[in-house]
Design a protein that fits this description.
Distance between the termini: 44 Å
Helix content: 25-40%
Order of helices and strands: EEEEHHEEEHEEHEHEHEHHHEEE
Shape: globular
Number of helices: 9
Largest sheet: 6 strands, parallel
C-alpha cells in the first residue's frame, strides 16, 4: 500500500490523503480536521468531497505545501517528541539547510513564507524514460491552432475521480468541431479506442513526451499538475486548467492570478464551458504574453548544475546555504514581470 494523492475537502474536512495500491479495489481515506482523523469507506462520500473541495483550496504555508504542510507537521511532531525534539509546526527544520525550488520566483504565492535557504532553479522537464518518440503525424504542418489536452498519467487510472472517460469525452465534445488540431493523451494505462473514432484533425494517444509535443502547440488544457503547468510555461503557452485533486487547485489559482489562462471549476466541466474557455484564451493575446514573460523569467534562472554546486557546498561546510533574503537569490535579483 502506498501513499498517493491529496485533495482538498469542503468543511468540516480540511485535507484528504488517499492511500491505496493500483491492485486494490478500494481506498482508505483519512480526513484531517485540526489533527483529528476520520476514516471514510464510502467512495461516494469521497467523490462528493473531491468535487466540492477544489472550490476553496488551502494556499498558505510554504510554497506548494498548502494544507499538506499542516498535516505533515501533525505526523512528524510525535516522531520528534519520541527523540526529545520540540514540535515544529511550521516545518522550519525541513528547510534549515537548503531548499531547491524549481519554479520561477513570481510563480510562487506571494503570501507564502520563503525560507532563507531557498534557491530558485530553472525547471527541467524529464519525460522520456524509455524509447518514446514523436508520432508520425506530429510536425510543423499541423493545422493551427494546436490545442493539447492532458490530465496526467495517474488521474485517468482512478475511477471515482471521473477523469476517464467522462472528462476526456467532455473535452472532445467541446473541441472536436473547432478549427485547427486537437491532441489528447490519456495515459499509458488507458486505450484511446475507448473514446471512439475521431475526425482526422483529432489525435488521441496514450502518451507523447511533452518536450516533443509542446513546441508545436498553441494552448494546453490541463488538470493543473505541477509538471504540466511548468512545462507549458516553459514553452510560453497559455493554459485552460481543470483542477481535480492534490496541488492542482493551488496551481490553477496561481495560473489565474498571473493571467496565464482560464480556470474551469468543478461545477462547470461541460463541453460548452471547455470550448468557450479555449476560444477566449486563444483569442486574447495577453494570456500568451503573460506565459512568455514567465517563460523568460524561468530561462534566466540557473540550471540543475547550480543545485549540484549548492549541495556540494552544504556537504563541505555543514552550514545553511542562504539564498533568499529580501528578494535576493545568491548574487542575482529576480523580479516578477
Amino acid at each position: 500500500m502506498r501513499s498517493g494523492w491529496t485533495v482538498g475537502l469542503r468543511p468540516p474536512y480540511s485535507l484528504v490523503h488517499l492511500i491505496g495500491g493500483e491492485d486494490r479495489l478500494g481506498f482508505v481515506v483519512k480526513a484531517v480536521e485540526a489533527g483529528r482523523r476520520v476514516e471514510l469507506d464510502d467512495p461516494d462520500q469521497l467523490n462528493a468531497g473531491v468535487t466540492a473541495g477544489v472550490k476553496d483550496p488551502p494556499r498558505r504555508g510554504y510554497v506548494g505545501a498548502g494544507r499538506g504542510a499542516h498535516d505533515l507537521a501533525l505526523q512528524l511532531d510525535p516522531v520528534r517528541r519520541a527523540v526529545g525534539l520540540p514540535p515544529d509546526p511550521d516545518l522550519q527544520m525541513l528547510y534549515r539547510y537548503l531548499l531547491l525550488a524549481f519554479v520561477p520566483p513570481s510563480y510562487q504565492d506571494p503570501a507564502a513564507r520563503r525560507p532563507r535557504t531557498m534557491h530558485h532553479l530553472r525547471t527541467v522537464v524529464f519525460d522520456r524514460s524509455g524509447r518514446e518518440a514523436a508520432p508520425a503525424w506530429l510536425g510543423p504542418d499541423l493545422d493551427r491552432p494546436v490545442v493539447y489536452a492532458t490530465f496526467g498519467t495517474e488521474l485517468p487510472n482512478i475511477p471515482f475521480l471521473g477523469v476517464f472517460p467522462a472528462l476526456f469525452q467532455a473535452v472532445l465534445e467541446g473541441l472536436r468541431d473547432e478549427t485547427g488540431t486537437l491532441v489528447v493523451t490519456v495515459g499509458r494505462g488507458k486505450d484511446p479506442a475507448e473514446l471512439g473514432p475521431q475526425p482526422p484533425h483529432v489525435h488521441v494517444e496514450r502518451y507523447v513526451p511533452q518536450s516533443l509535443l509542446l513546441p508545436h502547440c498553441d494552448l494546453v488544457v490541463t488538470h493543473g499538475g505541477h509538471n504540466t503547468v511548468l512545462a507549458a510555461v516553459g514553452h510560453g503557452l497559455p493554459v485552460v486548467v481543470i483542477p481535480i485533486a492534490a496541488d492542482q487547485p493551488e496551481n490553477a489559482q496561481r495560473c489565474a492570478e498571473l493571467g496565464l489562462g482560464r480556470v474551469i471549476g468543478p461545477d462547470d466541466r461541460t463541453p460548452a464551458a471547455i470550448g468557450a474557455a479555449v476560444r477566449e484564451v486563444l483569442r486574447d493575446p495577453r494570456y500568451r504574453q503573460n506565459a512568455q514573460r514567465l517563460r523568460d523569467e524561468m530561462e534566466a534562472l540557473p540550471g540543475p548544475e547550480r543545485g549540484v554546486e549548492l549541495l556540494e557546498r552544504l556537504a563541505a561546510q555543514g552550514q545553511p546555504v542562504v539564498g533568499v533574503q529580501a528578494g535576493l537569490q545568491g548574487d542575482r535579483t529576480y523580479r516578477a514581470a
